[in-house]
Amino acid sequence: MAIAYSELPTGVHTMLNTSLAMCRSLLRNTSNFYPFAVIEVDGIVEPFFVDESYDETAEVPLIESLDQQIHYYTLDLPEANSLIMYIATVESESEELSDVLVADISLNDGTLHAFYFPVIYAADNVSIGAPFTLHAS
Q: How much is the pTM?
């Protein structure tokens, strides 16, 4: 069941706001954006990246590796919420391509939610738009 962005728990909003601030900084200062994960427990936010020794030719893809790390770190934390943040390209109905930050959120009640944040590039600035969801037609 989908949940509205405004209905996400307070701790999840804290996790998202912290993640989006980090994304803005990363997008402004580097040409490469590496996916990362975040765990939130009782308002405490812990981001982490895949170990620098990660082999891009490994059998386990990067996003899956982050998912496995979340599972490992939250095994004994049933109250934990988590997200994986990565960048993707979406195609609009008018066939225009644009970048979005994808926040794949896993709530502590076991539900999964995806929110997409448009990335707007301007001279010397990057801004992140309001979130939207994708629904199957």
A: 0.88
